[in-house]
Amino acid sequence: STVACVVSHPDGNLYILTRPNGTIIRFNPSSRASAIVYTFGNQSQGLTPVHMTLANNGKIYGTTSAGGANSYGVIFEFDPLTGVYTKKFDASFSATGAQLGRLFDGPDGKLYGTMQTGGASAAGTVYSFDIITGNFTLIASFNGTNGSNPKG
């Protein structure tokens, strides 16, 4: 496994995402103690994790490029305080895009990201995800003329 990303949390721990199969590891830099706190391996909950980011609510959100109800990836939430992983959204090829990429915490409290494929022209999409309401909003679909297959 390789390290996909590291999230520094206010609880003093680092949360490390590994791929390709995927785990979330909690690492305490002071004590050097580490523990696997989540293992990806359930099709319906998402497979092949891509990225994680710390949101302003103290929870970690991330994406997978596969798995979920439609096999096109999911947006997930991981709560470091409780250790609970929750699938928040299932991608669907033409309606939302597929193969979720990196997530970014926007100044408005929403998460923003891209999907590498799918959408109206199968060339990828840009979206926002509201962590409070759970609403997914498609912002743009790429069509080749305006770009295609975004990776981040």
Keywords:
3% helix, 152 residues, mainly beta, 4-stranded antiparallel β-sheet
How would you describe what is shown here?
This protein is mainly beta and 152 residues long. 3% of the residues lie in helices and 53% in strands. The protein has one helix at 93-96; strands at 2-8, 14-19, 23-27, 34-39, 47-54, 60-66, 74-79, 84-90, 98-105, 110-117, 125-130, 136-141. It has a 4-stranded antiparallel β-sheet, with no helix packed on it. The chain has a 4-stranded antiparallel β-sheet with strand order 5-6-7-8, with no helix packed on it. It has a 4-stranded antiparallel β-sheet with strand order 9-10-11-12. The protein is globular and about 50 Å long.
Write a concise synopsis of the structure shown:
The protein is mostly beta strands and 152 residues long. The protein has one helix spanning 93-96; strands at residues 2-8, 14-19, 23-27, 34-39, 47-54, 60-66, 74-79, 84-90, 98-105, 110-117, 125-130, 136-141.
Low-pLDDT residue intervals, each spanning 5 or more residues = none
What overall geometry do the principal axes of the alpha carbons give? globular
Helical proportion, percent range: under 10%
Query: Beta-sheet strand percentage?
Result: over 45%
Q: What is the CA–CA distance across the termini? A: 21 Å
Radius of gyration: 15 Å
Q: Give, in spatial order, the strands making up the sheet with the most strands.
A: 1-2-3-4
Could you give the count of β-strands?
Answer: 12
Number of helical elements: 1
Broad structural category: mainly beta
Average of per-residue pLDDT values: 93
Largest sheet at a glance?
4 strands, antiparallel
Sketch the topology as an H/E string, one letter per element: EEEEEEEEHEEEE
